[in-house]
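Fig. S4 source data, part A: sequence.
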Amino acid sequence: MSYHHLALAAKDMAAIHEFYEVVMGFELVTVEIAPVMGGGWGKHFFYRMDGDDSKFIAFWELHDVPGQEDHEFDLNVAAKTPPGTNHISFGVDSAEQLTKRREQWNAAGHDVLEIDHNWCHSIYTRDPNGNMVEFCLTTGQFGDAERKRALAALDEKEMKPTPPPAKMKQWLASEYQG
């Protein structure tokens, strides 16, 4: 089973549209406009990912909602968690796709953090809401040893670190020469 869509509120729907359609390459395919629970109304925009009509990311543009001036759109700021804790991760199928996505982000003016986590390889940037967005390629396999370690960690009260990343690199948009 996979998820159908993730829905988030948008601080600036025009900037969200530019990022998710132009920069990310997702396609706006439909909108629902209706009242929202608690008062006010909203436009609920759905972006199809990779041409797949079963996978979307969606954004709410809210109007006349009580307390709207106090809404926080960065998930970590809203939750009072460290930056990057809550983030949105999208999968890619190859190292070439990961490189292409990094170059797209840099070309669009976004700095990119690349991390090889030893079992997956990721790139990160921020969307217009301030949320961390990731493209991730699974590079490892999981067996009994990995599961046993993960199960043991459920009960651990002290940090027992896993191996550090094999690679970390910051790709600055200002240095991109694509």
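Fig. S4 source data, part B ends here. The helical segments are 13-23, 75-79, 95-107, 144-153.
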